[in-house]
Amino acid sequence: MRTRMAAALLSLAGLFVSLYLYLYKLGYIGTLACGTGGCETVQFSTYSRFLGIDVPLLGLIGYTILLGLSVLALQQPGRVRWPGLLRLLAGGAAAFSIYLTYLELFVIHAICRWCVGSAVIALLLFIATLFMRVEAAPPPA
Amino acid sequence: MAAPAGGLNRFYLILGGLAVAGAVVLGALALRKPPVSIPANAMVQVSDTSGFHGYYLGSDSAPITVTEYADYQCPACQEWYTVQFPTIEERLIQTGKVRWRYRDFPLDQLHPHALIAAHAAACADEQGKYWEMNHKIYSWEPRWPEQRDAIGTFSDYAKAVGLDLPKYGACMQSARYAGRIQASKSEGMAAGVPSTPTFLINGQLYSGGRSVHYDMLKAMLDSLAGGPAR
Cβ–Cβ of A12/B18 closer than 8 Å? Predict the structure, then answer.
C-alpha cells in the first residue's frame, strides 16, 4: 500500500511541476525560479514540442493519468490491472524523461532544473511501481 | 500489507490538502503580474550578436543601405518616422532601391519607456512581425510616452498586429533581448552616433530629423546611377 501512496504523491508532485512549466510556456507566469538560467533556453528550444504538443502539456496529461491510476490502485488493491498499467505508463514516462534529459545535456546544452526534477519524479515513480504487489482489500470500516 | 480504511482516508486528506496547496501557490503565481523591467547596460552575450545585425527592410541587392539609429520615445525620431519614412518606404524601399537597417539606440536616461519599446519590438520580431510592431509603436497612438506605464499599450499593439499574446508576454517578462538592444546601442556609440535619429549611409553619419529624406536619398541614387533615377 505504501508504494501506491508513494506513486500517488509522486504523480501529484509531477503534475504540479508540469503545470508550473506549462503555465510559464503560456505566459501566465513571469519568470521561472530556475537558478541555472537554462530553463528559458530549454522551454523555448525547438525540442520543447513533441509531435506538435508542448512537452509540459504532455507531462501534465501523463501525470494526471498516473495520479488517477494510483488512486484507483489504492481504492482497489486486489485488482491486478492497476499496478501493471501504472508500471507500463511510468516506464514510458521515465524513458521519455531520460530522452529529454539527454537532449538538454548534449543537444540544447542547457539544463532546466524543473525538467530534471520531473525526470527524477518519473524515475522514482517507475521504481515505486516495480515494488507494487496485488494486495488484499482493506477490511470494511 | 493493506492499509486500514481509516489510514487510507487520512492519506486522501493529505493528498487533497497538498493538491489544494499546490493549486493555491500556482494560482497566486499566475495572478501575480510582476512589472516588466528591461535592464539598461545589460551584459552582451555572444548569442546577442551572432547572426543578428539589425532589423532589415527591403531588398538585399538594393544599391544603398541606410542604417538608422533611433529611439522609439525620441520625439524627433517619431516625427521623422511620421513625415519622412512613409514616402521612403513606398518609393525607395518597396521598389528595391534602398535597403533599411534599423538599430536600437535607446536614450534610456531621458526616455523611461525607450528600452521597453525596443524590447516589445524585439519580441514581435521573434514572431516575424517586427516591422508591423515598429510602425505601431512609432504611431504614438495613444501617446504612450506620456503614460506612467506603457506596457499595456504595447500589449494592445501586440494584439493588434496579431502576435501570440502569451508568447509575447513571456518574452517581455524574460527581458531576453536586453543584451541585443545594448549591443545595438554600443555599435551606434562606436560609430559616433551623437543623437537620434542618426543615419549611416556609405560610412557617413547624418544626424537629425531633417538630414535624411526622400529627395536626399533619390539624389544619392541618381549620382550612383550616373543620372536621375526613375
Answer: yes
Q: How far does Cα A94 stand from its chain's mean position?
A: 8
What is the distance between the alpha carbons of residues B175 and A31, in angstroms, rounded to a whole number? 10
Rounded Cα distance between B71 and B79, Å, is 12
Q: What is the per-residue burial (b if ≥16 Cβ within 10 Å, else e) of B104-120?
A: bbbbbeebebbbbbbbb
> Smallest CA–CA separation between A88 and chain B, in Å?
23
User: Could A5 and B32 be called an inter-chain contact, meaning their C-beta atoms sit closer than 8 Å?
Assistant: no
Q: Is ipTM beyond 0.85?
A: no
State pLDDT tens for residues B195-208.
Answer: 999 999 988 999 98
**Going residue by residue through chain A (141 aa), what tens digit of pLDDT does each one get?**
788 899 999 999 999 999 998 887 776 776 677 766 677 677 767 788 888 888 999 999 999 999 999 998 888 877 777 888 889 999 999 999 999 999 988 888 878 888 999 999 999 999 998 888 766 555 555
Residue B163 burial (CB < 10 Å; 0-12/13-18/19+)? Answer: buried
The answer to whether B169 faces chain A, any CB pair under 8 Å, is yes
Distance CA A121, CA B1 (A): 24
- Residue tagged 493528498 (cell numbers): B15
A52–chain B Cβ distance below 8 A for any pair: no
Q: How many residues does chain A have?
A: 141
Gap between the Cα atoms of A24 and A42, Å rounded: 12
